[in-house]
Amino acid sequence: MVPTARKIRAILLSGMLSVALAVSGLTAHASAGATAQLNAAQIITDMGAGWNLGNQLEANADGYPGETAWGNPTVTQALIDKVKAAGFNTIRIPVSYLRSIGPGPDYTISSSWLNRIQEVVNYAYNRGMYVVLNIHGDGYKTIPYSWLICDAADQTTIKAKYQKTWQQIASRFQNYDQHLIFESMNEEFDGQYGNPTQPCYSNINSYNQIFVDTARRSGGNNGSRWLLVPGWNTNIDYTTGNYGFVIPTDSYRSPTIPSGEQRIMISVHYYDPWDFAGEENGTITQWGRAATNPSRKSTWGQEDYMDAQLKKTYDKFAVRGYPVVVGEYGSIDKSSFDSSNNRYRADFARTMVSTAKKYGSATVYWDNGVNGQYGLGLFNRSTNTVTQPGIISAIMSALGGPGSATRYEAEVSPAVCTGTIDSNWSGYSGTGFCNGDNTVGAYAQFAVNASTAGTATLRVQFANGAATARPASLIVNGSTVQTPSFEGTGAWTTWVAKTLTVTLNAGGNTIRFNPTTAGGLPNIDYLEVTPSS
Known about the structure:
The protein has 2 domains: 5-399, TIM Barrel, CATH 3.20.20; 406-531, Galactose-binding domain-like (Jelly Rolls), CATH 2.60.120. It has an 8-stranded parallel β-barrel, surrounded by 5 helices. A 4-stranded antiparallel β-sheet has the order 13-20-15-18. Strands 14-19-16-17 form a 4-stranded antiparallel β-sheet, with no helix packed on it. The chain is α/β, with parallel strands linked by helices. The protein has helices at residues 5-13, 19-24, 28-32, 40-47, 77-85, 111-125, 155-172, 200-216, 236-240, 274-277, 303-316, 341-358, 389-399; strands at 49-52, 60-61, 64-65, 90-93, 130-134, 180-183, 227-230, 264-270, 324-329, 362-365, 379-380, 385-386, 406-408, 444-450, 454-462, 472-476, 479-482, 500-504, 507-515, 524-531. Helix 12 links the parallel strand 9 (324-329) and strand 10. InterPro entries: CBM6, Galactose-bd-like_sf, GH, Glyco_hydro_5, Glycosyl_hydrolase_5. It holds the Pfam family Cellulase.
Protein backbone atom coordinates (compact mmCIF):
# COMPACT_ATOMS: atom_id res chain seq x y z
CA MET A 1 0.00 0.00 0.00
CA VAL A 2 1.26 3.46 -0.84
CA PRO A 3 1.93 5.67 2.21
CA THR A 4 -0.01 8.77 1.14
CA ALA A 5 0.39 12.06 2.95
CA ARG A 6 -2.73 11.49 5.00
CA LYS A 7 -1.58 7.99 5.87
CA ILE A 8 1.76 9.34 7.08
CA ARG A 9 -0.05 11.94 9.18
CA ALA A 10 -2.06 9.15 10.81
CA ILE A 11 1.13 7.33 11.66
CA LEU A 12 2.66 10.42 13.22
CA LEU A 13 -0.33 10.75 15.44
CA SER A 14 -0.43 7.29 16.62
CA GLY A 15 21.62 -0.68 16.27
CA MET A 16 23.10 -1.86 13.19
CA LEU A 17 25.10 -5.13 13.09
CA SER A 18 28.35 -5.80 11.30
CA VAL A 19 28.40 -8.05 8.25
CA ALA A 20 29.75 -10.90 10.31
CA LEU A 21 27.00 -10.60 12.90
CA ALA A 22 24.32 -10.29 10.23
CA VAL A 23 25.48 -13.40 8.46
CA SER A 24 25.77 -15.26 11.73
CA GLY A 25 22.01 -14.81 12.11
CA LEU A 26 21.57 -17.38 9.37
CA THR A 27 21.06 -20.54 11.36
CA ALA A 28 21.12 -24.20 10.38
CA HIS A 29 17.53 -23.69 9.20
CA ALA A 30 18.80 -22.37 5.88
CA SER A 31 21.28 -25.05 4.99
CA ALA A 32 19.12 -27.85 6.35
CA GLY A 33 16.26 -26.93 4.03
CA ALA A 34 18.34 -25.85 1.07
CA THR A 35 17.21 -28.70 -1.13
CA ALA A 36 13.53 -28.52 -0.19
CA GLN A 37 11.43 -27.67 -3.23
CA LEU A 38 7.70 -27.27 -2.76
CA ASN A 39 5.38 -27.13 -5.72
CA ALA A 40 2.70 -24.48 -6.16
CA ALA A 41 -0.04 -26.12 -4.12
CA GLN A 42 2.33 -27.16 -1.35
CA ILE A 43 3.91 -23.76 -0.81
CA ILE A 44 0.60 -21.90 -0.80
CA THR A 45 -0.71 -24.27 1.86
CA ASP A 46 2.52 -24.10 3.86
CA MET A 47 2.58 -20.28 3.82
CA GLY A 48 -0.67 -20.26 5.80
CA ALA A 49 -1.83 -16.90 7.12
CA GLY A 50 0.34 -13.92 6.17
CA TRP A 51 1.02 -10.55 7.83
CA ASN A 52 2.75 -7.41 6.57
CA LEU A 53 5.37 -5.55 8.59
CA GLY A 54 4.00 -2.42 6.97
CA ASN A 55 5.22 1.18 7.26
CA GLN A 56 8.45 0.03 8.84
CA LEU A 57 11.48 -0.86 6.68
CA GLU A 58 9.93 1.03 3.76
CA ALA A 59 9.66 4.19 5.87
CA ASN A 60 12.05 7.04 5.12
CA ALA A 61 12.98 10.56 6.09
CA ASP A 62 14.01 12.75 3.14
CA GLY A 63 14.77 9.65 1.14
CA TYR A 64 16.91 7.96 3.76
CA PRO A 65 15.32 4.64 4.85
CA GLY A 66 14.66 4.33 8.56
CA GLU A 67 12.33 1.95 10.34
CA THR A 68 11.11 4.54 12.88
CA ALA A 69 10.68 7.40 10.39
CA TRP A 70 6.90 7.04 10.18
CA GLY A 71 6.18 6.68 13.89
CA ASN A 72 6.60 2.95 14.47
CA PRO A 73 9.13 1.68 17.03
CA THR A 74 12.20 -0.38 16.20
CA VAL A 75 11.31 -3.90 15.05
CA THR A 76 12.15 -6.54 17.66
CA GLN A 77 12.31 -10.32 17.83
CA ALA A 78 9.58 -10.13 20.48
CA LEU A 79 7.17 -8.54 18.00
CA ILE A 80 7.77 -11.21 15.39
CA ASP A 81 7.37 -13.91 18.03
CA LYS A 82 4.00 -12.41 18.98
CA VAL A 83 2.93 -12.44 15.32
CA LYS A 84 3.93 -16.08 15.00
CA ALA A 85 2.20 -16.98 18.26
CA ALA A 86 -1.01 -15.44 16.90
CA GLY A 87 -0.96 -18.02 14.11
CA PHE A 88 0.74 -16.24 11.20
CA ASN A 89 3.30 -18.27 9.25
CA THR A 90 4.28 -15.73 6.59
CA ILE A 91 5.65 -12.22 7.04
CA ARG A 92 6.00 -9.81 4.14
CA ILE A 93 8.73 -7.25 4.76
CA PRO A 94 8.37 -4.20 2.53
CA VAL A 95 11.72 -2.41 2.09
CA SER A 96 12.71 0.91 0.56
CA TYR A 97 16.29 1.57 -0.56
CA LEU A 98 16.16 5.10 -2.02
CA ARG A 99 19.22 7.10 -0.90
CA SER A 100 20.84 4.06 0.71
CA ILE A 101 21.88 3.16 -2.85
CA GLY A 102 25.14 4.78 -3.92
CA PRO A 103 25.95 6.29 -7.31
CA GLY A 104 26.43 4.32 -10.51
CA PRO A 105 27.77 2.35 -12.09
CA ASP A 106 27.98 0.06 -9.02
CA TYR A 107 24.93 1.40 -7.15
CA THR A 108 26.23 -0.07 -3.88
CA ILE A 109 23.63 -0.44 -1.12
CA SER A 110 24.67 0.86 2.30
CA SER A 111 26.08 -2.10 4.19
CA SER A 112 24.46 -0.96 7.45
CA TRP A 113 21.03 -0.85 5.82
CA LEU A 114 21.45 -4.24 4.16
CA ASN A 115 22.66 -5.68 7.47
CA ARG A 116 19.58 -4.38 9.27
CA ILE A 117 17.29 -5.79 6.59
CA GLN A 118 18.93 -9.19 7.03
CA GLU A 119 18.58 -8.99 10.79
CA VAL A 120 14.82 -8.36 10.54
CA VAL A 121 14.45 -11.12 7.95
CA ASN A 122 16.20 -13.47 10.37
CA TYR A 123 13.73 -12.62 13.15
CA ALA A 124 11.07 -14.47 11.15
CA TYR A 125 13.16 -16.84 9.03
CA ASN A 126 14.93 -18.35 12.02
CA ARG A 127 11.53 -19.09 13.56
CA GLY A 128 10.64 -21.24 10.54
CA MET A 129 8.34 -18.64 9.01
CA TYR A 130 8.08 -17.68 5.36
CA VAL A 131 9.42 -14.24 4.50
CA VAL A 132 8.49 -12.18 1.44
CA LEU A 133 11.16 -9.55 0.79
CA ASN A 134 10.64 -6.82 -1.77
CA ILE A 135 11.63 -3.41 -3.14
CA HIS A 136 8.69 -1.32 -2.00
CA GLY A 137 8.73 2.48 -1.99
CA ASP A 138 11.34 3.11 -4.66
CA GLY A 139 8.64 3.12 -7.35
CA TYR A 140 6.32 5.76 -5.83
CA LYS A 141 6.34 9.24 -7.31
CA THR A 142 5.08 10.53 -3.94
CA ILE A 143 8.20 9.31 -2.11
CA PRO A 144 11.28 11.59 -2.13
CA TYR A 145 14.21 10.25 -4.14
CA SER A 146 12.17 7.43 -5.68
CA TRP A 147 13.70 6.23 -8.92
CA LEU A 148 11.97 3.05 -10.18
CA ILE A 149 9.57 5.14 -12.29
CA CYS A 150 8.07 3.33 -15.25
CA ASP A 151 7.29 6.45 -17.28
CA ALA A 152 10.58 8.29 -16.59
CA ALA A 153 12.79 9.19 -19.54
CA ASP A 154 16.10 7.50 -18.71
CA GLN A 155 15.04 3.85 -18.57
CA THR A 156 18.55 2.63 -19.38
CA THR A 157 19.88 4.07 -16.13
CA ILE A 158 16.84 2.93 -14.15
CA LYS A 159 17.17 -0.64 -15.38
CA ALA A 160 20.90 -0.74 -14.68
CA LYS A 161 20.31 0.51 -11.13
CA TYR A 162 17.48 -1.97 -10.62
CA GLN A 163 19.63 -4.87 -11.82
CA LYS A 164 22.53 -3.93 -9.53
CA THR A 165 20.18 -3.50 -6.56
CA TRP A 166 18.63 -6.93 -6.94
CA GLN A 167 22.01 -8.50 -7.60
CA GLN A 168 23.20 -7.34 -4.19
CA ILE A 169 20.00 -8.41 -2.40
CA ALA A 170 19.91 -11.82 -4.04
CA SER A 171 23.60 -12.44 -3.38
CA ARG A 172 23.21 -11.53 0.30
CA PHE A 173 20.39 -14.07 0.75
CA GLN A 174 21.52 -16.75 -1.70
CA ASN A 175 21.92 -19.47 0.96
CA TYR A 176 18.43 -19.07 2.43
CA ASP A 177 16.00 -21.84 1.54
CA GLN A 178 12.52 -21.59 0.05
CA HIS A 179 11.17 -19.97 3.20
CA LEU A 180 12.50 -16.73 1.70
CA ILE A 181 10.57 -15.42 -1.30
CA PHE A 182 11.80 -12.46 -3.35
CA GLU A 183 9.20 -9.97 -4.65
CA SER A 184 10.37 -7.78 -7.53
CA MET A 185 8.58 -4.56 -6.58
CA ASN A 186 5.33 -3.24 -5.13
CA GLU A 187 2.52 -1.16 -6.65
CA GLU A 188 4.32 -0.09 -9.80
CA PHE A 189 2.37 2.13 -12.23
CA ASP A 190 2.36 5.68 -13.63
CA GLY A 191 0.51 7.16 -10.65
CA GLN A 192 -2.76 7.66 -12.52
CA TYR A 193 -5.72 5.49 -11.53
CA GLY A 194 -6.91 4.67 -15.01
CA ASN A 195 -6.23 2.12 -17.70
CA PRO A 196 -2.58 1.09 -18.07
CA THR A 197 -0.46 3.04 -20.51
CA GLN A 198 2.44 2.20 -22.76
CA PRO A 199 5.41 2.18 -22.72
CA CYS A 200 5.00 2.22 -18.92
CA TYR A 201 3.55 -1.30 -18.79
CA SER A 202 6.30 -2.61 -21.05
CA ASN A 203 8.87 -1.18 -18.65
CA ILE A 204 7.16 -2.93 -15.71
CA ASN A 205 7.42 -6.19 -17.64
CA SER A 206 11.10 -5.43 -18.27
CA TYR A 207 11.72 -4.82 -14.57
CA ASN A 208 10.16 -8.20 -13.75
CA GLN A 209 12.31 -9.91 -16.37
CA ILE A 210 15.48 -8.25 -15.09
CA PHE A 211 14.52 -9.31 -11.55
CA VAL A 212 13.99 -12.97 -12.49
CA ASP A 213 17.18 -13.21 -14.56
CA THR A 214 19.29 -11.45 -11.92
CA ALA A 215 17.99 -13.52 -9.01
CA ARG A 216 18.42 -16.79 -10.86
CA ARG A 217 22.04 -16.03 -11.88
CA SER A 218 23.16 -14.83 -8.43
CA GLY A 219 24.00 -18.27 -7.04
CA GLY A 220 23.07 -20.51 -4.15
CA ASN A 221 19.44 -21.44 -3.74
CA ASN A 222 18.27 -18.58 -5.93
CA GLY A 223 18.16 -20.92 -8.91
CA SER A 224 15.09 -22.65 -7.47
CA ARG A 225 13.67 -19.96 -5.18
CA TRP A 226 10.06 -18.86 -5.59
CA LEU A 227 9.96 -15.39 -7.14
CA LEU A 228 6.93 -13.08 -6.87
CA VAL A 229 6.05 -10.53 -9.59
CA PRO A 230 3.19 -8.00 -9.89
CA GLY A 231 1.36 -6.54 -12.83
CA TRP A 232 0.15 -2.96 -13.16
CA ASN A 233 -0.33 -1.54 -9.64
CA THR A 234 -0.99 -5.11 -8.40
CA ASN A 235 -4.50 -4.59 -9.79
CA ILE A 236 -6.39 -7.81 -10.50
CA ASP A 237 -8.20 -6.54 -13.58
CA TYR A 238 -5.09 -4.96 -15.11
CA THR A 239 -3.03 -8.08 -14.40
CA THR A 240 -5.50 -10.73 -15.55
CA GLY A 241 -7.08 -8.77 -18.38
CA ASN A 242 -5.78 -7.90 -21.83
CA TYR A 243 -3.81 -4.83 -20.74
CA GLY A 244 -0.24 -5.92 -21.41
CA PHE A 245 1.03 -7.97 -18.47
CA VAL A 246 3.63 -10.56 -19.45
CA ILE A 247 4.80 -13.33 -17.13
CA PRO A 248 8.62 -13.25 -17.22
CA THR A 249 10.46 -16.16 -18.74
CA ASP A 250 12.51 -18.32 -16.38
CA SER A 251 15.42 -19.32 -18.59
CA TYR A 252 18.09 -19.55 -15.88
CA ARG A 253 16.27 -21.58 -13.28
CA SER A 254 17.85 -24.63 -11.69
CA PRO A 255 17.59 -27.89 -13.62
CA THR A 256 16.49 -29.50 -10.35
CA ILE A 257 13.04 -27.93 -10.81
CA PRO A 258 10.70 -30.44 -12.49
CA SER A 259 10.00 -29.36 -16.03
CA GLY A 260 6.25 -29.31 -15.46
CA GLU A 261 6.42 -26.96 -12.48
CA GLN A 262 6.81 -23.20 -12.12
CA ARG A 263 8.77 -21.18 -9.56
CA ILE A 264 7.13 -17.83 -10.29
CA MET A 265 4.22 -16.38 -8.29
CA ILE A 266 1.87 -13.54 -9.24
CA SER A 267 1.26 -10.69 -6.77
CA VAL A 268 -2.07 -8.85 -6.47
CA HIS A 269 -3.55 -6.57 -3.81
CA TYR A 270 -7.18 -6.25 -2.71
CA TYR A 271 -8.88 -3.24 -1.09
CA ASP A 272 -12.36 -3.37 -2.66
CA PRO A 273 -14.69 -1.67 -2.11
CA TRP A 274 -12.38 1.26 -1.35
CA ASP A 275 -15.11 3.31 0.33
CA PHE A 276 -15.24 0.60 3.01
CA ALA A 277 -11.64 -0.62 3.01
CA GLY A 278 -9.64 2.56 2.66
CA GLU A 279 -11.62 5.78 2.40
CA GLU A 280 -10.96 7.87 5.50
CA ASN A 281 -14.42 8.91 6.61
CA GLY A 282 -17.28 7.42 8.58
CA THR A 283 -19.75 6.98 5.74
CA ILE A 284 -19.29 3.30 4.75
CA THR A 285 -18.56 1.22 7.83
CA GLN A 286 -20.29 -2.12 7.13
CA TRP A 287 -19.61 -4.90 4.63
CA GLY A 288 -21.10 -8.20 3.58
CA ARG A 289 -24.53 -9.77 3.73
CA ALA A 290 -24.59 -9.53 7.53
CA ALA A 291 -24.64 -5.72 7.32
CA THR A 292 -27.59 -4.26 9.22
CA ASN A 293 -27.65 -0.69 7.87
CA PRO A 294 -27.91 -0.34 4.08
CA SER A 295 -26.85 3.30 4.23
CA ARG A 296 -23.53 2.25 5.74
CA LYS A 297 -22.88 -0.49 3.18
CA SER A 298 -21.22 0.03 -0.18
CA THR A 299 -23.28 -0.54 -3.30
CA TRP A 300 -20.60 -2.84 -4.77
CA GLY A 301 -17.63 -5.01 -3.83
CA GLN A 302 -19.41 -7.57 -1.67
CA GLU A 303 -18.86 -11.34 -1.39
CA ASP A 304 -19.86 -12.14 -4.96
CA TYR A 305 -17.50 -9.52 -6.36
CA MET A 306 -14.59 -10.75 -4.23
CA ASP A 307 -15.21 -14.30 -5.39
CA ALA A 308 -15.30 -13.25 -9.04
CA GLN A 309 -12.07 -11.26 -8.73
CA LEU A 310 -10.11 -14.09 -7.16
CA LYS A 311 -11.55 -16.53 -9.68
CA LYS A 312 -9.98 -14.37 -12.40
CA THR A 313 -6.55 -14.93 -10.88
CA TYR A 314 -7.18 -18.65 -10.64
CA ASP A 315 -8.34 -18.94 -14.24
CA LYS A 316 -5.48 -16.81 -15.57
CA PHE A 317 -2.53 -18.03 -13.49
CA ALA A 318 -3.16 -20.78 -10.95
CA VAL A 319 -4.41 -23.28 -13.51
CA ARG A 320 -1.10 -22.81 -15.33
CA GLY A 321 0.96 -23.51 -12.22
CA TYR A 322 1.62 -19.88 -11.24
CA PRO A 323 0.28 -19.46 -7.68
CA VAL A 324 -1.22 -16.13 -6.68
CA VAL A 325 -0.36 -14.20 -3.52
CA VAL A 326 -2.74 -11.50 -2.30
CA GLY A 327 0.19 -9.57 -0.87
CA GLU A 328 -1.99 -6.91 0.74
CA TYR A 329 -5.61 -6.74 1.88
CA GLY A 330 -7.48 -5.26 4.83
CA SER A 331 -9.86 -2.51 5.87
CA ILE A 332 -9.24 0.53 8.02
CA ASP A 333 -10.68 1.02 11.51
CA LYS A 334 -13.86 3.13 11.48
CA SER A 335 -15.17 1.98 14.84
CA SER A 336 -15.14 5.57 16.09
CA PHE A 337 -18.06 6.16 13.68
CA ASP A 338 -19.78 2.78 14.02
CA SER A 339 -19.21 0.56 17.04
CA SER A 340 -19.98 -2.53 14.95
CA ASN A 341 -17.29 -1.76 12.33
CA ASN A 342 -14.69 -4.20 13.62
CA ARG A 343 -17.14 -7.06 13.20
CA TYR A 344 -17.45 -6.23 9.49
CA ARG A 345 -13.70 -5.80 9.20
CA ALA A 346 -13.42 -9.34 10.57
CA ASP A 347 -16.06 -10.55 8.11
CA PHE A 348 -14.10 -8.95 5.26
CA ALA A 349 -10.86 -10.63 6.35
CA ARG A 350 -12.51 -14.00 6.93
CA THR A 351 -14.16 -13.93 3.51
CA MET A 352 -10.95 -12.86 1.77
CA VAL A 353 -8.91 -15.67 3.32
CA SER A 354 -11.54 -18.36 2.76
CA THR A 355 -12.14 -17.24 -0.84
CA ALA A 356 -8.42 -17.15 -1.57
CA LYS A 357 -8.10 -20.63 -0.09
CA LYS A 358 -10.90 -21.78 -2.38
CA TYR A 359 -8.93 -20.53 -5.39
CA GLY A 360 -5.52 -21.73 -4.22
CA SER A 361 -4.07 -18.34 -3.25
CA ALA A 362 -2.12 -17.13 -0.23
CA THR A 363 -3.08 -13.96 1.66
CA VAL A 364 -0.99 -11.40 3.55
CA TYR A 365 -2.86 -8.88 5.72
CA TRP A 366 -1.66 -5.26 5.50
CA ASP A 367 -0.75 -4.04 9.00
CA ASN A 368 0.56 -0.47 8.99
CA GLY A 369 1.33 -0.39 12.71
CA VAL A 370 -1.44 2.16 13.37
CA ASN A 371 -4.16 1.39 15.92
CA GLY A 372 -7.29 3.46 16.37
CA GLN A 373 -9.09 5.59 13.80
CA TYR A 374 -8.18 4.65 10.21
CA GLY A 375 -5.50 2.24 11.40
CA LEU A 376 -4.89 -1.25 10.07
CA GLY A 377 -2.89 -2.53 13.03
CA LEU A 378 -3.50 -5.96 14.51
CA PHE A 379 -0.72 -5.56 17.07
CA ASN A 380 0.68 -2.78 19.25
CA ARG A 381 4.33 -2.77 18.18
CA SER A 382 5.45 -0.95 21.31
CA THR A 383 3.96 -3.40 23.79
CA ASN A 384 3.86 -6.49 21.53
CA THR A 385 0.19 -7.09 22.30
CA VAL A 386 -2.75 -8.06 20.12
CA THR A 387 -5.14 -5.18 19.45
CA GLN A 388 -7.63 -6.84 17.07
CA PRO A 389 -8.23 -10.41 18.29
CA GLY A 390 -11.50 -10.61 16.35
CA ILE A 391 -9.84 -10.00 12.99
CA ILE A 392 -7.01 -12.42 13.76
CA SER A 393 -9.53 -15.07 14.85
CA ALA A 394 -11.46 -14.53 11.61
CA ILE A 395 -8.31 -15.03 9.53
CA MET A 396 -7.36 -18.21 11.34
CA SER A 397 -10.88 -19.62 11.29
CA ALA A 398 -11.03 -19.13 7.52
CA LEU A 399 -7.92 -21.27 7.10
CA GLY A 400 -9.16 -23.95 9.52
CA GLY A 401 -6.87 -26.29 11.41
CA PRO A 402 -6.67 -28.12 14.74
CA GLY A 403 -8.23 -26.10 17.55
CA SER A 404 -9.47 -23.34 15.26
CA ALA A 405 -12.99 -22.15 14.71
CA THR A 406 -14.30 -23.56 11.46
CA ARG A 407 -17.15 -22.21 9.39
CA TYR A 408 -19.59 -24.55 7.71
CA GLU A 409 -21.44 -23.18 4.70
CA ALA A 410 -23.90 -24.73 2.33
CA GLU A 411 -26.49 -23.72 -0.22
CA VAL A 412 -29.59 -25.74 -0.91
CA SER A 413 -32.96 -24.21 -1.69
CA PRO A 414 -35.32 -23.66 -0.12
CA ALA A 415 -34.04 -24.38 3.38
CA VAL A 416 -32.52 -27.79 3.84
CA CYS A 417 -28.78 -27.25 4.16
CA THR A 418 -25.92 -29.62 4.76
CA GLY A 419 -22.29 -28.81 5.36
CA THR A 420 -19.35 -31.09 6.09
CA ILE A 421 -15.91 -30.83 7.65
CA ASP A 422 -13.00 -33.24 7.62
CA SER A 423 -11.66 -35.19 10.57
CA ASN A 424 -8.94 -32.75 11.63
CA TRP A 425 -11.31 -29.81 12.03
CA SER A 426 -10.16 -27.99 8.92
CA GLY A 427 -11.94 -26.88 5.79
CA TYR A 428 -15.58 -26.54 4.90
CA SER A 429 -17.84 -27.69 2.12
CA GLY A 430 -20.12 -25.65 -0.10
CA THR A 431 -20.64 -21.93 -0.47
CA GLY A 432 -23.38 -19.39 0.11
CA PHE A 433 -26.08 -19.63 2.71
CA CYS A 434 -29.23 -21.45 3.77
CA ASN A 435 -32.18 -19.56 2.35
CA GLY A 436 -34.95 -19.91 4.90
CA ASP A 437 -37.55 -18.61 2.47
CA ASN A 438 -40.26 -18.82 5.17
CA THR A 439 -40.98 -22.31 3.92
CA VAL A 440 -43.24 -24.48 6.08
CA GLY A 441 -41.15 -27.20 7.72
CA ALA A 442 -37.86 -25.69 6.59
CA TYR A 443 -34.78 -26.45 8.61
CA ALA A 444 -31.00 -26.06 8.36
CA GLN A 445 -28.79 -29.06 9.00
CA PHE A 446 -25.01 -29.39 9.12
CA ALA A 447 -22.95 -32.58 9.25
CA VAL A 448 -19.81 -32.33 11.38
CA ASN A 449 -17.17 -35.05 11.38
CA ALA A 450 -14.86 -35.27 14.38
CA SER A 451 -11.81 -37.50 14.70
CA THR A 452 -12.49 -37.98 18.41
CA ALA A 453 -15.36 -37.30 20.78
CA GLY A 454 -15.31 -33.99 22.63
CA THR A 455 -16.97 -30.67 23.24
CA ALA A 456 -17.29 -27.72 20.90
CA THR A 457 -18.59 -24.15 21.03
CA LEU A 458 -21.15 -23.05 18.44
CA ARG A 459 -21.84 -19.62 17.00
CA VAL A 460 -24.37 -18.98 14.27
CA GLN A 461 -24.96 -15.96 12.07
CA PHE A 462 -28.46 -15.29 10.79
CA ALA A 463 -28.58 -13.10 7.72
CA ASN A 464 -30.31 -9.80 7.34
CA GLY A 465 -33.50 -9.83 5.34
CA ALA A 466 -36.11 -11.64 7.41
CA ALA A 467 -38.82 -9.20 8.47
CA THR A 468 -39.79 -11.29 11.48
CA ALA A 469 -37.44 -14.09 12.44
CA ARG A 470 -38.94 -17.19 14.03
CA PRO A 471 -37.41 -18.81 17.09
CA ALA A 472 -35.67 -22.12 16.50
CA SER A 473 -34.55 -25.15 18.42
CA LEU A 474 -30.96 -26.37 18.28
CA ILE A 475 -30.81 -30.16 17.95
CA VAL A 476 -27.52 -32.05 18.11
CA ASN A 477 -27.51 -35.74 17.19
CA GLY A 478 -31.26 -35.92 17.73
CA SER A 479 -31.28 -34.32 21.18
CA THR A 480 -32.58 -30.81 21.80
CA VAL A 481 -29.82 -28.65 23.23
CA GLN A 482 -31.63 -25.34 23.41
CA THR A 483 -35.17 -24.21 22.76
CA PRO A 484 -36.88 -22.19 21.55
CA SER A 485 -34.15 -19.86 20.33
CA PHE A 486 -30.74 -18.34 20.86
CA GLU A 487 -31.85 -14.79 21.47
CA GLY A 488 -35.62 -15.05 21.66
CA THR A 489 -37.95 -13.68 19.02
CA GLY A 490 -37.15 -10.77 16.74
CA ALA A 491 -34.79 -10.25 13.86
CA TRP A 492 -31.56 -12.26 13.85
CA THR A 493 -29.09 -10.08 11.97
CA THR A 494 -25.85 -10.28 13.93
CA TRP A 495 -23.56 -12.80 15.59
CA VAL A 496 -25.14 -14.66 18.47
CA ALA A 497 -23.13 -13.66 21.50
CA LYS A 498 -24.06 -16.54 23.79
CA THR A 499 -21.59 -19.38 24.28
CA LEU A 500 -23.21 -22.68 23.43
CA THR A 501 -21.25 -25.80 24.29
CA VAL A 502 -22.27 -29.10 22.75
CA THR A 503 -20.89 -32.63 22.92
CA LEU A 504 -19.87 -34.24 19.63
CA ASN A 505 -19.32 -37.91 18.95
CA ALA A 506 -16.34 -39.41 17.19
CA GLY A 507 -17.25 -39.66 13.52
CA GLY A 508 -20.37 -38.06 12.10
CA ASN A 509 -22.57 -35.58 13.94
CA THR A 510 -25.73 -33.75 12.96
CA ILE A 511 -26.38 -30.17 14.01
CA ARG A 512 -29.85 -28.98 13.07
CA PHE A 513 -31.89 -25.82 13.51
CA ASN A 514 -35.64 -26.52 13.62
CA PRO A 515 -38.30 -23.84 13.50
CA THR A 516 -40.83 -23.87 16.32
CA THR A 517 -43.53 -22.27 14.19
CA ALA A 518 -44.90 -23.25 10.81
CA GLY A 519 -43.38 -20.21 9.17
CA GLY A 520 -39.91 -21.64 8.68
CA LEU A 521 -36.47 -20.18 9.38
CA PRO A 522 -34.81 -16.90 8.50
CA ASN A 523 -31.71 -17.09 6.30
CA ILE A 524 -28.72 -18.67 8.00
CA ASP A 525 -25.39 -17.39 6.72
CA TYR A 526 -23.15 -19.89 8.44
CA LEU A 527 -22.39 -21.93 11.50
CA GLU A 528 -19.01 -21.73 13.23
CA VAL A 529 -17.72 -24.60 15.37
CA THR A 530 -14.75 -24.30 17.69
CA PRO A 531 -13.52 -27.55 19.24
CA SER A 532 -12.70 -27.11 22.92
CA SER A 533 -11.38 -30.61 23.50
